[in-house]
Every structure is written in C-alpha cells, then in structure tokens.
Amino acid sequence: MTDSAPPRISDLARSHGPGGVAPAAVRDYLSGLNPEQRDAVETTEGPVLVLAGAGTGKTRVLTTRLAHILATGRAKPWELLAVTFTNKAAREMRERITHLIGPSAEGLRWLGTFHSVAAQILRRHAELVGLKSTFTILDTDDQERVCKQLLEAANLDTKRWTPRSLSGLIDHWKNRGWTPDKLPPSEDFANGKGHGLYAAYQARLASLNACDFGDLLLHNLTILSKHADIAEEYRRRFRYILVDEYQDTNVAQYLWLRLLTSSTGNVCCVGDDDQSIYGWRGAEVDNILRFERDFPGAKVIRLERNYRSTHHILGAASGLIAANKGRLGKTLWTEETSGDKVRVRGVWDGEAEARLIADEIETARKQGVAYKDMAVLVRASFQMRAFEERFVMLAVPYTVIGGPRFFERAEIRDAHAYLRLILSEDDDLAFERIVNVPKRGIGDTSVQKVLQIARENGVSAMTAVRALLGSDELQARTRTALSNFVRDIDRWREFANTSTQWELTETVLEESGYTDMQKADRATGQTRLDNLKELTQSMQAFDGLTAYLEHVSLVMDLDRGESADSVQIMTLHGAKGLEFPLVFLPGWEEGVFPSQRSIDEKGEKGLEEERRLAYVGVTRAKADARISFAANRLVYGRWTSQLPSRFVDELPIDHVEAQSDTGYYGASGGMKEAKSRWDEMPTFGSGYSSPGWKRAQSFTAAKAPAARPARHTLIEGDGRLVATADPKAGSGWTRGDRVFHQKFGYGKVRVIEGNKLVVDFEKAGEKKVIDTFVEKA
Fold first, then answer.
1. Which of 67, 335, 502, 697 counts the most CB atoms within 10 A of its CB?
2. What is the pLDDT of residue 731?
3. 240-243 and 80-84 beta bridge pairing
4. Which candidate in 113, 253, 275, 642 is catalytic?
C-alpha cells in the first residue's frame, strides 16, 4: 500500500469562502454547543427568537451564529446588521468573532450599538432631516444648556421647571418615537408649554447643525418611514439581522428594527423576558412578548441549561419568577446538583444586617473566598451607607460600582457642608461649597472676591461677608442674597442648640430650598432625596452633631483606595450581566423591595418588574446566595416593624434555608407556621393604603385559589410599633436588673432605650431585645 501524496501548498493556502474558515475549523466552532445552542446557531433562515435564560451561554450563541453565517457563505460581513446595547458588548462580540473566523470579522462594519449604527445611517442621509453630514452630537451638559436657554426665553422659573427635567422628558419622548408633531396631548410640561418647548428645542438643534442621542434613532425613523426607497435599500443590504438583549429595547429601537427587517424576515433576537428590568428608562418588555405576533411563523428556541449557578439557586429563582403573569415561560436547570440552599435570614435591624453580612464576608475570606468574588446587591443606593460604614470599620476593602461611595455623593457632601458651617464659621471650604447651593444669585466672581478679602484680612469668609454687607464693594443684589444666607445660618445655629442633629438637618434642607431643588429634578432627584433621608436616619445613632461629623471625618479618613481584591457593592440594576460566587441580597422588605414607588406608579406592571429584578439578583450567584431583611428600622427616632418582602414568601421552601434572630416572631421566640403574610392587608402606614398597594392586593386575591394549600414556614411581623427609643416610653426596667430570656438565658440590663433593652447575657454575650421578651430573674 502506497502512502498518499502530500498536500499541495496551493491547497493549504486556498481560500475557504468569505469567512476564510476551513471546514475543520467550522466543526471546531460548533463543537461544545449543547443541542439548543446549536439549533439557535444553525437556524439561520426566517425569524428566530432565542429565549436565553441567565447563565445559559447567550453571548456564545450570538457570536457563533454570526461566525456560522459568514463561514458558510450565506452573507458577506457588510451584509450583516448586529446591534447591542453597550460599546463593551459590541467590542467583546467583535473580538470573539475574530477569534473564531479570523480577520474577516473586521469587515463587520454594521456591528455596534443601536446609536452607533443609527449615526452611520444618519451621516449618509442627514440632509433629509435638515442637517449636514458634519453634524455634532450634543452631550448631556450641552442639552441642558439649550433647555435652560429655552426656559428662560419662555419666562419660566428654572428652579421649578429645571433644564434637567425638561431634557429628561424630551429624551423620554424620543425613546417613544414621538416627534413634536406626534406628541400626544396627555404629555406635557410646565402647564401646557411642553409641545412648544419640544418644537423649539428641535429647531434650536437644527440651527446648530446638532442632534442629541435620542435624535440618532428618531431621525432614522423619519428618514426610513418617509423615504421608502432608502428603507428598501437597507433592507436589501442587511440580509441578516441579529439583536442582543431584545427585552431591553424601547419603542424607538423596536420601530427602527421593524423598518429595517427585510421581507425574508431573517432576524434573530436574543433576550430574556425574565430579565427585563429597565422599564424606568423606556424599555418595553412587550417587545419580546409579542415577537411571535410581529413575525408569524417565528421559531422560538429556549436556552434553559444554566452553566453558572447551583441547583438550589436556580430552583429558588425559577419559583420566584413563576409568580409573574407576563412572561413566555422557561425553567432553568443544571447538571450541578451540589451546593447549599439559598439562605434567608431575618435580623433585628439594619445595623444587625450590616454586622451579619460583614462578619460572613470575613468568615468567607478566611475560608479562601477572595473579596472580589463577593458582592452586596441592594435595591437602592441609600441602602449602601450601613455596609460602607461597617466595611470601613472592619477594614474590609470594597468598591462601589456604578456611582460614588455614600459619603462622597454630592447631596451628602452638600448637607455636611451646611452642618459644618453651622458648627464653625471658620470653615471656608464648607462656605464655598454651599453659599450658592441652591442658586441664590451669588455668582462665582462674588464668591471668589469674598474669599480673597477674607484671606487678605486673615478672617473667615463668613466674617468677611458680615463686613461686606455694610459696604458697596458688592452689588446690591449680591449683598441681599448674602444677607439672607447669613441670617439663615445664624437662625439654624440657634436652632441647633435646642434640636437633635437630624431635626436640624431636615430643617436646613427644607428651609434652604435644597429639598425643593431635588424634587424639581425628575431625573435623579428622588434618588438623592432617598439618600438624604438615609443620612438623617443614620444621624440618630450619635449623641450630637459634633460626634456625628467626627464620625464622618474618621470614616472618610479610614476609607482606603480601591483594591483589586475588594467586595463589590452595587444596585441590582447595575449587577445585570455580572456573576459572583457569593452574593448577599439585603433589604428584602415591603416598601424597599419591591419598591413602594414602583408599585404606586405602575401597579401590577411595576410589581412584575420588581420581581424580575429579584430574579436577576438571585441568579447573579454562582454558588451561594444569601437574602436578608430587618424586623425593625429606625425612622425619625422611632423603631417601627417592617414587613418582609412578598418575594421572600414566594421562594420555594425546597430550595431555601430560613433562619431568624430571636425576638421577631413574638413571645414564643421561635419559628411558627403561619398563613401567608399577604393574605391580609397591613393596618399601618399611609404607604400601604396607596392605589398601587391596593391593586397588588386585588391582583393577589383574584388569582388566589379558593383553598390555599399549607405554605412553608415564613417570617411574620405585626404591623405595629414594636419598639421605641423614646425615653418617655419607659417600661419599669433599671440598669443592672437581672433578667432571663428563653434562648439566651440569664443576663443584666446595660442600656435602656424606651422599651428596647441592651442585655449582657452570661453565655450569649450582648444582645438587643424588647422588654416583653425577657422576665425579671
């Protein structure tokens, strides 16, 4: 038998099609795909919806599908349209495809974000919407500057109708695909002036040969809908369309994709309806839910095999999300059967929650888990403060993802500057920060003049201001504004002598106009107000204003630079797409999570998005997920009981391990079987008589079966004042009293705060308990 002839050099060097990939390489890139993933890659013709659950290999499917289309010669790189939501995702996709098929991926000129691709189209046809191809794209600051000019021209109060709020509203209108002439009458701003301001804004941008980010898509819609020949040109060009994160598309993006989809319908959308969590910024989960109606005959492929999390984590997440009605349905599974159950812990209060999580992080670190492999995911940024302070105290390195640390936030620094100036007139840095915040008509030039005179005379800025008020060195209007400012500071300093530090802070923020300034900001104002509310509540743990400010200074001083190995703290919205071996999910309480505001504003739709957010949080965990909630929160000096989140009750008991601090359940001090907390209406708090709460209750009642099967053990809290720090609420105890607790045994009373006791138990150590849980020994 003779040996076969050696391969010819020309054969080895021969081109293998547009992708430049040899048949063996094709087999390589398809190897390792599970059956559903391979189906999603190889089903290239017609409309396809890939429902990709968390951790199911979505990105691999997308990139491999693109590579497969190119490698099999179905299209050339410039005939593919692939859109993502972030530049990072687009960059990673291009890198992966290049790794699979080589340099041909560089020809993917239409792979990018929605806005970057839309900008390319707009450059080519700018004259059709009154622009030149050299148009500029305005950033947020420029947009707000234009809005301010328009508001002033319309003689509107820019403190009440802020440029930021107008800019945000215009962006919302553009995300809905509304041009000024199509704006519904129900959409308004400044008592009927919204339509006119929007039209003037667009005209102003056109005169500047500029557009904002919203215009990139909006102008595309105008061009493609009014010029059928151009739309047809792009439909012929884009033989295949791929869309990432389809559940997060807004109306404008949806309309844009429909206009570009060819008659062949070769469109593949990848997404997860259970992870649609950006409704607050315009995302429409209905876009993915109606895909089969939009594209009759579409093939739906479900990716349900999870490669990230354990069996119990997936079971808990699946059971939770099953309560949503608006979903296409899928069940995640894994071959990984080991792993701990999801832990649910009820703790005494927010301080105990922060202490518990910090201690467990330290324990995990000693067991070999890196800090960077642990994350604390909160519903809102104001929840971060307690954890940041605890981590600083224990020297646990941490990084806040997606924003500044709590005490570095602008609104917190502003509040502290007011307090510092009230405490000390010599604090010129505090003076400079807040003398014109909110706007008082004191310009930068005047402020610098005051500071210069202060330095020249060796006095504080406040002393210099008092002297300047009697001179003509400043304009009359500036002197009046400074006089009012000095009078306010003096009044607040007097008030500080007879009030608590949190009452002082609330008064300053209200009387200075700072609160109203945030309320007028529809974009981020509410978040800032929530942070300020958290600030005032955190002050209640200190003896006075001086002690509090010293604490803040120490925290800021101890706060070290970010470490490569640090615990990650972020909001649940910011955690999407990330994964960590150990995830802590604190604050699962009614009104916090689900957000009461979300329920009030959107009813059942808002509740379902909150539940999807909880699902996203749980599925960030690879090996260990720990949920916690507090029985009590300190609100304006009073301890009030908190209701556990309804999401806690919706977790399947088979995948959950429940634990609780003694004192949450009543005098028995232990676990007890109970019907669902949500079978009855809470009886306290105006927030629970809101329309949103009533809608949620009606929905729960409507879908409930006539006879509810026995539920699993859950944590129950009464809607009443269980404890108070008010000294007037004395309970007959004195320091040194010997007491007995059913679980903790014997101990002595060390501190009395109303009917809340701090007891030093002989065996259990120091514990906080309500007096009804102990008896005199």
1. 67
2. 61
3. parallel
4. 275
Q: Which of 399, 719, 340, 325 is nearest to 559 (CA)?
A: 399
Q: Which of 43, 44, 59, 507 is catalytic?
A: 59
The neighbour count for residue 437, using CB atoms within 10 Å, is 17
642 is catalytic: no
Which of the residues 245, 388, 590, 610 is marked catalytic?
A: 245
From the candidates 171, 215, 244, 425, which is the catalytic residue? 244
Asked whether 341 and 627 are in contact (CB, 8 A), the reply is no
User: 234, 254, 263: which is closest to 125 by C-alpha?
Assistant: 234
Burial letters for 613-640: b for 16+ Cβ neighbours within 10 Å, e otherwise?
bbbbbbbbbbbbbbbbbbbbbbeeebbb
Q: How many whole angstroms separate alpha carbon 667 and alpha carbon 90?
A: 58
Contact criterion met (CB below 8 Å) for 248 and 283: yes
H helix runs in 53-86, sequence order: 58-71
pLDDT bracket for residue 240 (50, 70, 90): very high
First to last CA, the chain: 101
What tokens appear for 342 in the block? 């999801």
Q: Is the peptide bond before 438 cis (omega within 30 degrees of 0)?
A: yes
Is residue 674 over pLDDT 90? no
What does each C-alpha distance from 696 to 323, 605, 607, 691 come to in angstroms? Answer: 12, 10, 8, 9
Binding annotation: 52-59
C-alpha pair distances (Å), 464 with each of 448, 479, 492, 536: 12, 12, 19, 31
Tell me how crowded residue 24 is: count the other CB atoms within 10 A of its CB.
8
Rounded Cα–Cα distance for residues 238 and 106 (Å): 17
For the CA atoms of 541, 547, 552, 554, what is the dihedral angle to 10 degrees?
-120
With a cut of 60, say whether residue 112 has pLDDT above it.
yes
Instruction: Count Cβ atoms below 10 Å from residue 163 Cβ, excluding itself.
Output: 20
pLDDT in tens, 721-768: 444 445 555 567 888 888 887 667 788 898 887 777 888 887 767 777
CA torsion angle for 765, 771, 773, 776 (degrees, to 10)?
80
**What is the three-class DSSP state of 678?**
helix
Annotated binding residues for ATP, written as ranges, equal 52-59
DSSP 8-state class, residue 666: -
487 in catalytic set? no
> Rounded distance, CA 594 to CA 588, Å?
8
DSSP label of 73: T
Nearest to 312, CA basis, from 608, 626, 53: 626
Q: What are the φ/ψ torsions at residue 93 (nearest 5 degrees)?
A: -65, -45
Burial class (CB in 10 A: 0-12, 13-18, 19+), 350: buried
Q: In this structure, are strands 299-303 and 48-52 parallel, antiparallel, or unpaired? A: parallel
Active site residue 477: no
Give the number of other CB atoms < 10 A from CB of residue 511: 13
Does position 44 have pLDDT exceeding 80, yes or no?
Answer: yes
Lowest mean pLDDT among 301-305, 341-345, 554-558, 666-670: 666-670
Would residue 11 show up in a list of annotated catalytic residues for this protein?
Answer: no
341 carries an active-site annotation: no
Compute the distance between CA of residue 682 and CA of residue 452 in angstroms, rounded to an integer: 59
Quick check: is 620 catalytic?
yes
The DSSP H or E segment spanning 384 is helix 384-393
pLDDT band (50, 70, 90) for residue 708: very low
Q: Are 93 and 111 in contact (CB under 8 A)?
A: yes
758 φ/ψ angles, rounded to the nearest 5 degrees: -105, 115
